[in-house]
Amino acid sequence: NAGVTQTPKFQVLKTGQSMTLQCAQDMNHEYMSWYRQDPGMGLRLIHYSVGAGITDQGEVPNGYNVSRSTTEDFPLRLLSAAPSQTSVYFCASTVRDTGELFFGEGSRLTVL
Amino acid sequence: SQQGEEDPQALSIQEGENATMNCSYKTSINNLQWYRQNSGRGLVHLILIRSNEREKHSGRLRVTLDTSKKSSSLLITASRAADTASYFCATGHNTNAGKSTFGDGTTLTVKP
Predict the structure, then answer these.
(1) What's residue B1's pLDDT?
(2) Long-range contacts formed by A38-41: CB under 8 A, 24+ apart
(3) CA-CA distance, B73 to A22, in Å (whole number)?
(4) How far is A99 from chain B (nearest CA, A)?
(5) Chain A environment of B38 (Cβ under 8 Å)
(6) With contacts defined as CB-CB under 8 Å, which chain A residues touch B101?
(7) pLDDT given for residue B94 in this prediction
(8) What is the structure's pLDDT at A48?
(9) What pLDDT is attached to residue B63?
(10) A62: burial class by Cβ within 10 Å (0-12, 13-18, 19+)?
(11) CA quadruple B2, B11, A93, A36: dihedral positive or negative?
């Protein structure tokens, strides 16, 4: 089973560029979420979704957009990259009844 | 702001010793989860304890939860070098399934 798949694994952007981080899960989980992890810190929630067509903001949503057109996919868009968005991004899907999170391997983004 | 706070931030022990990590949180929860993160990798779910449970075991892991003190502990017995990783607690809420809140983690180093 693939679980949660994130692409790309590494990306370097220049300030002002835009890009999309892709996330796909094959476990038919209703809930999906995006976190960022800065060095030496825990994960902070950017956006989450409780089902196709439904998204909501997390703790640090500014500068990011999401959409959820299918159960499987939950892309994260950086509209105009800034150096403060240099981080490792994790996508996760959630088992509805328990809230147990299944994580992808992460996307390491550097903004110059 | 982070809901969970782990203590200590870093822990270094010898192989064979037990490792204890603590987590405190601020608001009422539905469940508390512990995750492990190896360097450069995604987070892996270890164990979940519900708010009506006081103790749970899984292999060499023992988790306790004290809702009156809003705290949890993770005990790893007979530690191995392969247990070297960062450990995070995450709190889950009934009304916000999929919106778990993470602490900053405890970095455990197990010396051979």
Answers:
(1) 42
(2) A38/A87, A38/A88, A40/B104, A41/B104, A41/B105
(3) 35
(4) 6
(5) none
(6) 45, 59
(7) 59
(8) 92
(9) 98
(10) exposed
(11) positive
pLDDT per residue as tens, chain B (112 positions):
446 688 899 999 999 999 999 999 988 888 899 999 999 899 999 999 999 999 999 999 999 999 999 999 999 999 999 999 999 999 876 556 567 888 889 999 999 9
Nearest-angstrom CA–CA distance, A19 and A32: 19
Q: What local confidence, expressed as pLDDT, does residue B96 receive? A: 60
Q: Please tell me the distance from the alpha carbon of residue A33 to that of residue B99, in angstroms, as a whole number.
A: 8
A 2-21 residues with CB < 8 A to B: 4
Burial group, residue B27, by CB count within 10 angstroms (0-12, 13-18, 19+): exposed
B109 Rama class: left (phi>0) / alpha (psi -120 to 50) / beta: beta
Query: How many C-beta neighbours within 10 Å does residue A1 have?
Result: 4
B59 in A contact zone (CB under 8 Å): no
Which chain B residues are within 8 Å of A104, Cβ to Cβ? 42
Which tens digits make up the pLDDT trace of A68-100? 999 999 999 999 999 999 999 999 998 776 778
